[in-house]
Amino acid sequence: MMVTLERLLEYRIVRFALSGGIATAIHIVVAFLYLHFIQDSVFFANVIGFCLAFIFSYLSQTLLVFKQNVNWSNATRFFVVQFGSLMLAQGLSELISDLNSYIRVIVVVLILPVITYIIHKLWTFSE
């Protein structure tokens, strides 16, 4: 079992999926807790969830997925990509504003990984 896991982790896309899955879980848990305990504002729930997931995501993707050093250059590009995709996702969330708030959060966190992987691979962490 461990040998299979080690082989899978050799692939960047697998490490990205694992890192992104954990970041997505952080985003969802934080956003849902915000919606439940603080206020029913999808915008603020997603912003708070994004911020905490961003920190984890940047560090794990820089060090584990793309195996580069943490620095201001890629941190800035990483933020631009993540923030841009968040704004795109938030716009989509507003387009489907008739749906339940929790469903809207799920929609947001499902579209972010596809967009961000492509841009991070081609731009943020390009070699």
Report on the architecture of this protein.
This protein is mainly alpha-helical and 127 residues long. It has one domain (2-124). Helices cover 83% and strands 0% of the residues. It has 5 helices and no strands. The chain has helices at 2-8, 12-37, 42-65, 72-95, 101-124. Helix 2 runs antiparallel to helix 5. The model has no long low-confidence stretch (mean pLDDT 87).
Summarize, please.
The protein is mainly alpha-helical. The chain has one domain. Helix content is 83%, strand content 0%.
Summary keywords:
transmembrane; transmembrane helix; GtrA_CellWall_Glycosyl; 127 residues; GtrA family protein; mainly alpha; GtrA_DPMS_TM
So what's the overall shape? globular
Separation of termini?
Answer: 33 Å
Q: Mean pLDDT, nearest integer?
A: 87
What structural class do you assign from the helix and strand content? Answer: mainly alpha
Biggest beta sheet summary: none
- Count the strands? 0
Distinct helical segment count: 5
Q: Which band does the percent of strand residues land in?
A: under 5%
Low-confidence stretches: none
Oligomerization category of the chains in this entry = single chain
SSE string, helix = H, strand = E?
A: HHHHH
Helix proportion:
over 70%
- Give the C-alpha Rg: 15 Å
Query: How many structural units, i.e. domains?
Result: 1
